Amino acid sequence: MTDLNRRVATAARWSLVNTIVRRVGTFASGVVLARLFFGPYEWGLYAVGLLVLAMLLSLNEMGVSLALVRWKGDIRRFAPTVLTLSTLSSSAFYVLLWFSAPALAKALGSPDATLMLRVLCVSVIIDGIACLPLGQLNREFRQFPRTVVDILNFAINTAATIAFAAAGVGAMSFAWGSLIGNLVALVGFGLCAPGMLRFGWNTEQAKQLLRYGLPLASASLLTLGIVNVDSVVVGSILGPAALGIYAMAFNMSSWPVRMVSETARRVSFAGFSRLADSSQAEFASGFIRAFTLVIAAAVPICVVLGVLATPIIVFVYGDQWAAAGLPLQFLVALGLLRTAVELAYDCLATRVRKTLMFMQAWWLFTLIPLLILGAHLWGVPGVAAGHVVVAAVLVSPVFVVVLGRLGIPAGQILLACVRPALGGVAMGVVAWLAHHWLGGGFLGLAVAGVASFATYVPFVLPIIKRLRSGGAGTEEPVTAEPALA
Question: Could you read off the pLDDT of 98-120 as tens digits, one per residue?
Answer without folding.
Answer: 898 888 788 777 777 788 888 88
